[in-house]
Amino acid sequence: MAMADGSFRVEVEHDHLRKLANASPVQAVCELVWNSLDADASRVDIDVDHGELGMHSISVRDNGHGFTYEEARALFGKVGGSWKRHGANSRHRSRVLHGKEGKGRLKALALGRVADWIVRYRDEAGNLMGFKMTLVKDALVDVEISAPEPAEPVLGTGVEVTISELEKQFKSLETERAVPDLSSVFAIYLKNYQDAEILFDGERLDPEANIASSRTISLDPIEADGGTHPVVLEVIQWNSAPERSIFLCGKDGFPFARIAPKFHTKGYVFSAYLKSAYVDLLQERGAIDLAEMDPAMADAVDQASEAIQVHFKEASAAEARSEIERWKEERSYPYEAEPTTKVETAERQVFDILAITVNKHLSDFSQQSAKGRTFQMRMLRQAIERGPDELQTILTQVLDLPQKTMNEFAKLLEEADLANVISASKMVADRLSFLSGIEQLLYAPETRGLLKERSQLHRMIAEGNTWIFGEEFSLTVDDKGLTEVLRKHRSIIGDETIIDAPVKRIDGSVGVVDLMLSRSVPRNRPDEREHLVVELKRPSVVIGPKELTQVESYAFAIANDERFRDLDTRWVFWAVSNDIDEHARRRARQEGSPPGRVYKDGPIEIWVKAWSEVLSDAKFRMRFVQDKLKSNVDDDAALKYLKKTYAKYLDGIADDAAPEATSANVDAEDASKT
Predict the structure, then answer these.
(1) Strand, coil or helix: 138
(2) In whole angstroms, what is the distance from residue 673 CA to residue 236 CA?
(3) CATH architecture of 6-173
(4) How far is CA 523 from CA 529, 530, 568, in A?
(5) Out of the domains of life, which is the source (predicted)?
(6) Is it the case that residue 404 has pLDDT exceeding 70?
(7) What 3-state DSSP class applies to 215?
(8) Where are the domains of the chain?
(9) Which long-range contacts (CB under 8 A, 24 or more apart) does 218-221 make?
């Protein structure tokens, strides 16, 4: 007896049906695919039909066993009446079932206004039969169904769902986004059931090919409902994926709910699968959509989130160490020896952060030749040593990094006072090297006789190294006539002092000084000043009567000049060379005077200094500063700040930079694929 076309009503309130028909586009497609897989389909095709105006319809087609005409009323007539409730496994392939409530089919209407089912099945006699069903969003409680008819044998069993009159153009269902997204949803299923395949617009979902690495982590069990439910977290890092997700899965690993992580894993896209029988319980109760409000489930999600962050911090650290080792092997890394002090350690860690981040931001940096990378590495090191301003210039003008990244680097240096520590440490190291070099030039037999007074020794001191005589000195006049000394002196004490003629020595010639170093000594009145004039001699010159006479002539020229005779200014003159003869030594050991002073009269003092004394004093000052810097880094919060801030850029270069996992025991099951 032939059956006529007809319809039936869904036994549930219309408002409830409308809620069930809401879902994201990908979620709606996934529900239809799960129905196909639960029906033992070995192949599921998802196709998006495009017309002149864009997406026209979406279809999901499978070769599963379908469902009979008689089962249709039970499937669609009553929500919760799914045939899947009668067993935990599929009919023919004994697959674990994803859904048991029969709600998933209604998600199709989240995509469009009309959903049509074409169903083919075998009746009790083994005949291939088919019928059609239609659901319209405007009348959710009414299901139209056609009478069953014999179907073409070549078609075989299966179901095809077509959704038309789409709500809108779904960007998430464009191939380049949908394929990796759907792959993340069905990754565990396709790994467990390799007899199933899913295609999207003809492209086969192949999660295995998109996996960069995977890791299984055991979490604390969920204690709820008087029972203990083990929890396992599987983290898959993808080569590409549209978004990061945490899936709540049953114990068999099939996702029932999807959660957006509330944290960032910069540079990594992943899917995490939290597997537990407790999720199965929530699904059976119909409470899976409210899982995050369940206290036990919420705690498990928090624990999983922490474990995921630790996992990727460790992965980032491993990648960073590998990259740094590669730079060392190709000799582009600008440091050779291991750091020996806290200051050097701080500088090295800042450099590693900077270099790794630049490497991530700039593809050219990693792809260029080792020679080019060596040059840029040296620039980065110099920029760090010179402080945030220099670093900003390099990052902006040379490397063209994003402004946000540049600001973060400057903040990293400034907030911990690392800029001062690192640049000061570099300055001290350079100065100690300079002192050692000068010492060699002055005292080595092969160089001391060749070093000239002004053209060599003078220039080395004058060009940024006047600190050798004391940190309080700044270069004010360099190799100028004594007239210029007076003019410079005038600019300090007041422009009203007039200088209109050269100042002569006692013999009438114009005086020239090697270096004039000036310092201002605080006194009772702001117009009081103190100056230092240094007469440098080349190493081969021994200071004797002639040299003393020369420096005295400078001093007396100032003392006798009528324009400065009565000014409240103190002048200190030095004569410096490698050695001092007996005459000068006697002058420097006068009773009642400190060692080295050969003359004092009013505001004028003349001293004789050997280079050994000058260098010894300078070394003592530099080593004192160096020791103080080390002490400051040990006692200060600079390194603590660096390690605290480290994770923002590069976790784990320092052993204690990454936080430890407090609630996750990491299993040793790491399967990496690159």
Answers:
(1) helix
(2) 11
(3) 2-Layer Sandwich (3.30)
(4) 8, 10, 11
(5) Bacteria
(6) no
(7) strand
(8) 6-173, 207-416+637-674, 447-620
(9) 218/664, 218/665, 218/666, 218/667, 219/274, 219/300, 219/303, 219/304, 219/307, 219/663, 219/664, 219/665, 220/300, 220/303, 220/663
Backbone angles phi, psi at 99, to 5 degrees: -120, 150
Structure tokens given for 250: 């049953």
Whether 538 contacts 453, CB under 8 Å: yes
Angle CA(36)–CA(234)–CA(97) in degrees, nearest 5?
25
β 211-224/227-238 pair status: antiparallel
pLDDT of residue 187: 92
Which helix (H) or strand (E) is 344 found in, with range?
A: helix 342-361
Look over the chain and give the mean of its residue pLDDT values, rounded to a whole number.
76
CA distances from 482 to 373, 477, 515, 557, 563 (A): 51, 10, 11, 9, 13
CA distance 324 to 356: 8
Nearest to 98 by CA among 295, 252, 209: 252
Tell me if 256 sits within 8 A of 279, measured CB to CB: yes
What six digits make up the tokens of 567? 């000014």
Question: Residue for token digits 């005077």?
Answer: 593
Taking a C-beta distance cutoff of 8 angstroms, is the pair 633, 449 a contact?
Answer: no
Are 148 and 130 a contacting pair, CB within 8 Å?
Answer: yes
pTM for the model: 0.58
Helix extents (H) in 368-509: 370-386, 388-393, 403-415, 418-443, 445-448, 459-462, 482-493
Token pair listed for 545: 């009567």
pLDDT in tens, 83-130: 444 446 778 887 888 765 556 677 888 899 999 999 999 999 999 999
Contact assessment for residue 82 and residue 91, using Cβ atoms and an 8 Å cutoff? no
CA distance 219 to 226: 19
Q: What is the pLDDT of residue 609?
A: 85
Q: Which residue type is seen at 75?
A: L
